[in-house]
């Protein structure tokens, strides 16, 4: 601030010096005339005539030293600020309206910028692609070890290819202090190099590290290094226990490191692929594969180049029953990361830009009304010599000052909204943690502010001053009134589109909330755990742990109905190809059947989960010691396999061998692919006693009337008796189900908020236009009432004008809503994008708001006193 005040002080001194110099020249000319014999008064008068006006001379001197455009800009700014000071209500409303539009658009841009526009945290990220098979086995493209080794050796379109195991492993890290559970990713040695990265300290993984049986090494994140060693650098070269195996830390990952499937990793370790294993074994081991394109090679060209290798792999590694359900995918890394949220991101950005247009239309209407009030002043300035360009610059300067003031306030509002979005956003929203108001977002805010200022300031600036205004005659002009009415219709149309979108999302959220789950989520508590890899590596150790755990948890006082399973809905089950199922004594099932989910459960699983048994019976405790594990089918799988026939007593081959299992029951369908998706076909296997076929993970399920907090203490106590180092995650089923609804709830809340703001802006704009027209037509109303018009007729006339504009806006908005609703079909749940209720209700709301906005101006028109109106004119 000090340099700014210093420049003002220097300017004042310079102006004073110029005035003194001009006064000196004029005094010298007067002195010369006095020497010629004139008296003092005559000399001074003659000197002033010869020298000319001092103001004009000062302007000429200033033009030599100061750029004329700058001087005029300063004058325009001063004049505009004085005008704003004389109209504080107008200025406050305009700045607040702009701040709403800029603040909302800035906040949403900061959220979608990392998703849609910002570069990924890798050098030349446009060259990075994800490549692999795509089929019913996985929601993303995948590969298998045998195919990947062939592709890596024979491919031509990529500079390099790399791989990683599909899911993060849970590892137990022991650095000498208390053990901690960390996320381990197993990657190929060239993983970082393919993405153009290098460790910030230490060394990268090498080919020798990636050989099967090589000594284990690891790269750790800086965050893990700080928490484990106090300083990441202190961990370099240290040997730690990871899953009870010695691992040497050889490098530290970059601070900004991000896994290609999003998320961070605590530890990277070499996956040590073994190409010497039989192809049958390697073809069942899944991978994620990524690549960097060669310079000048497009994604389409890479796809065509990989097709022969893909077709060869189909013959060698893909079961014949899945051939028609698998395809090759080569797509950009960005597309892989955001394909689930891309549509929602564009929809939010479109909604907030519609809100910004509403704000611009409102301010444009305000400025047009202000120009109408200043038409006498503008005509006077034009009459005394102000050029058309000069008046346009003056009006645009006022618009820019309003825009910059509103933009500055909007940046503050945007910062608050971003913090609110980050706080309220559900966990797992892609890149939400990267949303912030930085220089890039501020640049967008400045650009949006200037564009908005030009947009809403252009129409008032182009207003032609009329000479009739000098005589005091009305010069409202058909063009200006048409423009104001057009802006109101546009506001109503945009508001209806926003309200329709919000209504669709709210109805979709309601349907999602009321959607039957197939099980009872009330009073259901779950305890999830994963056994340590090394300690429970023998299958017998896992089986012994599960057997004893089940006995202990079953005996918890007040625990209610208890069951043990490997996963719980609404998601989490494993899958098998439908074509693997074979009914004993019947023809093979359809080859192209997708995937079938399955779970291992204990006998009381269905009672604990509240899943009805529709046919047959549930599992029996006595069956756990038999060698013949029974099967229970979901209703959808039973219909698919047996049609209208009963499956009870039939035997199924499930695992590709010749061993068959009897079907003892049919359970109701339960949500197993998410809350918003239809249930997938599923079957349940009985978790046998002393079984060695179980994995390391499990979920204990309790249906109980106990307080969840009290039950949690009992559960943790029993786990601690068996393994004090084993972490246990406890939550209620209602909390778990609610997590699946958080994202649509967040989107619905944001769009509904924007729609509410849009409705408010439309109401304010409609009220402002009607109030302006009533003021403009005061004389006409007075004449009508003097000639016998009743106050009710005048009020109905004003209401009729509002009805025409609102109806026009509703018609345009309805057409726009129908045209754009189909684009958001993928974000809706059991609601048609052309749902009539979602269109009619917002239209009625807008009509009601229009009536409310027109009420006060119509009442004011009805109360016009004809005598006073005519006397004023």
Count up the helices.
25
Low-confidence stretches: 472-477
Shape: elongated
Share in helix: 40-55%
Structure classification:
alpha+beta
Describe the sheet with the most strands: 8 strands, mixed
End-to-end CA span:
51 Å
The count of β-strands is 24
Q: Rg, please?
A: 38 Å
Strand content: 5-15%
Mean pLDDT: 82
Question: What report would you give on this structure?
Answer:
- There is one protein chain.
- The protein is of the alpha+beta class.
- The protein is built from 25 helices and 24 strands.
- A hairpin with a 6-residue loop joins β20 and β21 (660-667).
- α1 packs across α3.
- It starts with a helix and ends with a helix.
- The model is unreliable at 472-477 (pLDDT under 50).
Short description:
The chain has about 850 residues and is an alpha+beta fold.
Q: Helices, strands, pairings?
A:
Elements: H1 2-35, H2 40-51, H3 54-65, H4 68-86, H5 88-117, E1 128-134, E2 143-144, H6 145-154, E3 158-164, E4 169-174, E5 180-187, H7 191-194, E6 201-202, E7 217-220, H8 222-229, E8 239-242, E9 245-252, E10 267-270, H9 279-282, E11 286-293, H10 299-317, E12 327-332, H11 333-338, H12 342-373, H13 375-383, H14 388-424, H15 439-461, H16 478-514, E13 524-530, H17 539-554, E14 561-565, E15 574-577, E16 582-583, E17 595-601, H18 605-609, E18 613-616, E19 631-634, H19 635-642, E20 651-653, E21 660-667, E22 682-686, E23 697-703, H20 708-722, E24 729-732, H21 733-776, H22 778-786, H23 791-821, H24 836-862, H25 866-872
Parallel strand pairs: 5-10, 7-9, 17-22, 19-21
Antiparallel strand pairs: 1-11, 1-12, 2-11, 3-11, 4-5, 4-8, 6-9, 7-10, 8-9, 13-23, 13-24, 14-23, 15-17, 16-20, 18-21, 19-22, 20-21
């Amino acid at each position: 601030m000090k340099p700014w005040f210093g420049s003002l002080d220097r300017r004042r001194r310079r102006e004073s010096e110029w005035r003194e110099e001009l006064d000196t020249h004029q005094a010298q000319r007067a002195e010369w005339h006095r020497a010629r014999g004139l008296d003092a008064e005559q000399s001074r008068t003659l000197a002033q005539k010869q020298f000319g006006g001092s103001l004009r001379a000062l302007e000429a001197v200033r033009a030599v030293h100061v750029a004329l455009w700058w001087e005029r800009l300063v004058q325009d700014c001063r004049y505009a600020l004085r005008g704003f000071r004389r109209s504080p209500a107008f200025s406050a409303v305009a700045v607040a309206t702009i701040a709403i539009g800029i603040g909302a658009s800035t906040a949403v841009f900061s959220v979608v910028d990392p998703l849609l526009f910002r570069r990924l945290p890798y050098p030349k990220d446009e060259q990075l692609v994800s490549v692999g098979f795509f089929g019913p086995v996985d929601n993303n493209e995948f590969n298998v070890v045998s195919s990947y080794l062939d592709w890596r050796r024979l491919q031509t379109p990529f500079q390099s290819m790399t791989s990683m195991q599909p899911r993060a492993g849970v590892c137990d890290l022991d650095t000498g202090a208390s053990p901690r559970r960390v996320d381990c990713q197993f990657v190929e040695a060239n993983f970082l190099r393919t993405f153009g990265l290098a460790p910030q300290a230490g060394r990268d993984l090498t080919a020798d590290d990636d050989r099967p049986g090589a000594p284990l090494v690891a790269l750790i994140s800086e965050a893990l290094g700080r928490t484990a060693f106090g300083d990441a650098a202190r961990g370099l070269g240290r040997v730690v226990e990871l899953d009870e195996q010695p691992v040497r830390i050889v490098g530290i990952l970059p601070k900004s490191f991000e896994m290609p499937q999003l998320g961070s990793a605590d530890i990277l370790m070499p996956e040590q692929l073994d190409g010497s294993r039989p192809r049958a074994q390697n073809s069942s081991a899944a991978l994620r594969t990524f690549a960097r394109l060669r310079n000048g090679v497009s994604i389409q060209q890479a796809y065509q180049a990989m097709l022969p290798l893909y077709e060869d792999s189909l013959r060698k590694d893909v079961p014949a029953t899945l051939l028609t359900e698998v395809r090759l995918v080569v797509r950009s890394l960005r597309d892989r990361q955001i394909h689930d949220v891309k549509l929602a991101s564009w929809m939010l950005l479109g909604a907030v830009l519609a809100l910004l247009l509403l704000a611009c239309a409102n301010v444009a209407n305000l400025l047009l009304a202000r120009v109408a009030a200043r038409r006498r002043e503008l005509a006077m300035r034009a009459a005394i010599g102000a050029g058309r360009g000069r008046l346009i610059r003056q009006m645009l300067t006022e618009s820019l000052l309003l825009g910059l003031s509103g933009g500055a306030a909007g940046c503050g509002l945007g910062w608050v909204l971003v913090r609110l979005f980050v706080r309220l956003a559900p966990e797992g929203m892609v890149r939400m943690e990267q949303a912030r108001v930085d220089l890039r977002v501020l640049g967008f805010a400045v650009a949006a502010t200037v564009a908005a200022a030009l947009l809403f300031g252009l129409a008032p600036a182009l207003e032609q001053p009329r000479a009739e205004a000098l005589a005091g005659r009305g010069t409202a002009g058909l063009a200006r009134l048409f423009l104001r009415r057009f802006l109101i219709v546009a506001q109503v149309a945009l508001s209806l589109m926003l309200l329709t979108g919000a209504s669709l999302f709210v109805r979709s959220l309601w349907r999602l909330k009321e959607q039957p789950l197939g099980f009872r989520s009330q009073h259901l508590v779950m305890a999830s755990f994963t056994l340590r890899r090394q300690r429970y590596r023998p299958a017998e150790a896992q089986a012994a742990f599960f057997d004893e755990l089940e006995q202990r948890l079953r005996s918890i006082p007040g625990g209610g109905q208890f069951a043990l399973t490997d996963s719980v809905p609404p998601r989490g089950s494993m899958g098998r190809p439908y074509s693997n199922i074979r009914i004993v004594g019947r023809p093979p099932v359809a080859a192209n059947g997708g995937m079938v989910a399955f779970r291992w459960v204990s006998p009381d699983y269905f009672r604990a989960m509240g899943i009805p048994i529709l046919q047959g019976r549930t599992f029996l405790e006595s069956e756990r010691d038999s060698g013949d594990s029974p099967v229970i089918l979901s209703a959808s799988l039973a219909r698919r396999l047996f049609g209208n026939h009963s499956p009870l007593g039939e035997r199924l081959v499930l695992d590709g061998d010749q061993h068959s299992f009897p079907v003892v029951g049919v359970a109701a369908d339960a949500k197993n692919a998410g809350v918003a998706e239809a249930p997938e076909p599923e079957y349940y296997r009985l978790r046998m006693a002393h079984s060695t076929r179980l994995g390391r993970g499990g979920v204990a399920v309790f249906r109980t009337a106990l307080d969840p907090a009290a039950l949690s203490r009992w559960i943790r106590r029993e786990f601690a008796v068996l393994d004090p180092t084993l972490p246990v995650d406890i939550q209620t089923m209602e909390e778990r189900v609610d997590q699946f609804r958080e994202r649509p709830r967040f989107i619905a809340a944001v769009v509904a908020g924007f729609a509410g703001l849009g409705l408010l802006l439309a109401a304010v704009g409609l009220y402002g236009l009607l109030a302006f027209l009533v003021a403009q037509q005061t004389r006409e109303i007075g004449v009508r009432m003097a000639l016998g018009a009743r106050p009710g007729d005048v009020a109905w006339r004003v209401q009729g004008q509002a009805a025409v504009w609102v109806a026009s806006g509703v018609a345009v908005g309805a057409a726009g809503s129908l045209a754009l609703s189909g684009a958001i079909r993928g974000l809706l749940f059991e609601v048609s994008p052309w749902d009539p209720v979602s269109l009619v209700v917002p239209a009625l709301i807008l009509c009601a708001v229009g009536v409310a906005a027109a009420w006060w101006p119509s009442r004011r028109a009805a109360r016009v006193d004809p005598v006073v109106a005519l006397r004023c004119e």
